[in-house]
TrEMBL record:
Keywords: Membrane, Transmembrane, Transmembrane helix. The chain crosses the membrane at residues 12-34, 40-61, 153-170, 176-198, 250-271, 291-309, 315-341, 353-375, 381-403. It comes from Acidovorax temperans. PANTHER family: MAJOR FACILITATOR SUPERFAMILY DOMAIN, GENERAL SUBSTRATE TRANSPORTER, MAJOR FACILITATOR SUPERFAMILY MFS_1. GO terms for molecular function: transmembrane transporter activity. InterPro entries: MFS, MFS_ArsJ, MFS_trans_sf. SUPFAM superfamilies: MFS general substrate transporter. NCBIfam families: MFS_ArsJ. This is MFS transporter permease.
């Protein structure tokens, strides 16, 4: 158990370093190109390939991590992120707008691949280290997943703040070089500290086998698509543009989003204390997923009504509503992240997790695209209605999650 805890700590620390720079990158790109006069929809477009690349990266990354080992894929993910930063740093201010956008989208695509390769490898490592400890303690697994996910998102919030500070002090190119250097140190630590073959197993031999997941993982994947689409459909463009239109400056908007993300991460880490746990790991956790998805759907419904009625002090109603959304969303996300590992088999955990997070990336892609379109068509109201519809679908998908899974099925997966 001590050895497993050590590997878990190393993987978590490596992912912290990665997420810190990934959050800073998002702020760097948003602030830099906003300052250059790019529209909100164009800013959303800059991240589309970043999100789309993650769909394929998760599927392939899970398969590669099973075949070649989690440590190797974590190494590839960190190296790819360093490459993405280097490509982005070559952006030339004298280029045309079209050339600049194309270059940034390409670099963001590379970083999108890096993010999801690193995420799949890191979260798979949790399942593998728990299995290696030979202590199938679902309570411990839930705690590890919740702390990993929550601390990661808190680190992303700090990254948002770091990105603004670096852009102001070092400029766009200097910030990217510094972050690439930080990741090189993290990469060195991973290579010298983790077992090379950790998580290596017999990978699927066909696409049919790769996609033939058990009912639990399939249901969670469907729920994950609409869950994260429901967040990003109003969070990526709708919230920052709405707050800016209410008189907030960009520093206030960026600071608020950073604080929201940090708070959201802290709630994720505390989820095991909020959700009652069961001995079998599913009988109370699955009903909790159903309950919290239903509660979450009520938030954008209520906010949409407030926007439609144009209630007094609307901006503060939205701020409070976003806080409530963050709490319910954090619990949902944490429970889902635990359940995918509870349903996954330990032999092909990386493949199962990769499949699940490919759905996550698809949801982010859909949410990012629809965020720009819906806000352009009908403002914050349309974005909130889109979020509410997706969350109703999420709740319906959780109704089909199995409360019991045969171990024979898990072993086969």
């Amino acid at each position: 158990m001590q050895h497993a805890a050590r590997n878990y700590a190393i993987v978590t620390a490596a992912y912290w370093g990665f997420t810190l720079t990934d959050g800073a990158l998002r702020m760097l790109v948003l602030l830099h190109f906003y300052r250059l006069g790019y529209s909100p929809f164009t800013l959303a477009f800059l991240f589309l390939l970043y999100e789309a690349a993650g769909i394929l990266a998760n599927l392939i990354g899970g398969w590669l991590a099973t075949r070649y080992g989690i440590t190797r894929m974590l190494t590839v993910g960190l190296t790819t992120q360093i490459l993405g930063f280097s490509v982005l740093s070559m952006l030339n201010p004298t280029w045309t707008v079209a050339m600049s956008v194309a270059w940034v989208v390409l670099a963001q695509g590379i970083c999108g691949v890096a993010k999801d390769l690193t995420k799949t490898a890191s979260k798979s490592a949790i399942k593998v280290t728990q299995a290696a400890a030979k202590e199938q303690d679902n309570g411990q697994l839930f705690k590890w997943v919740a702390w990993f996910t929550g601390s990661k998102n808190a680190m992303k919030g700090f990254g948002f703040f770091l990105g603004g500070v670096l852009l102001q002090t070092l400029g766009f190119q200097g910030s990217l070089w510094l972050m690439a250097g930080l990741l090189a140190v993290v990469l060195l630590g991973v290579v010298t500290s983790l077992p090379t073959m950790m998580g290596k197993s017999k990978a699927s031999k066909s696409a049919k086998e790769l996609f033939a997941k058990n009912a639990g993982i399939n249901g969670l994947a469907a729920a994950r698509v609409v869950l994260f689409g429901a967040r990003d459909v109003w969070f990526v463009v709708g919230v920052p543009v709405f707050l800016y239109s209410q008189g907030w400056n960009f520093t206030m908007v960026g600071g608020f989003l950073a604080a929201w993300t940090i708070g959201y991460g802290l709630v994720q880490a505390l989820a095991p204390n909020i959700v009652k746990r069961s001995a079998d790991g599913l009988s109370t956790e699955v009903p909790a997923a159903r309950l919290w998805s239903a509660l979450l759907a009520l938030v954008p419904m209520g906010l949409a009504a407030a926007v439609l009625l144009d209630v007094p002090h609307l901006q503060w109603v939205v701020v409070v509503g976003l806080g409530l959304f963050g709490v319910a969303f954090a619990v949902n996300s944490s429970v889902h992240s635990y359940l995918v590992l509870a349903y996954a088999g330990s032999e092909k955990a990386a493949e199962d997790v990769g499949f699940y997070y490919a759905a996550n990336a698809l949801g982010r892609f859909m949410g990012t695209l629809m965020s720009g379109l819906l806000y352009q068509w009908g403002g914050l109201l349309y974005a909130l209605l889109g979020s509410a519809l997706m969350l109703v679908l999420c709740w319906l998908f959780t109704l089909y999650l199995p409360v019991k899974v045969e171990r024979a099925v898990l072993a086969a997966s």
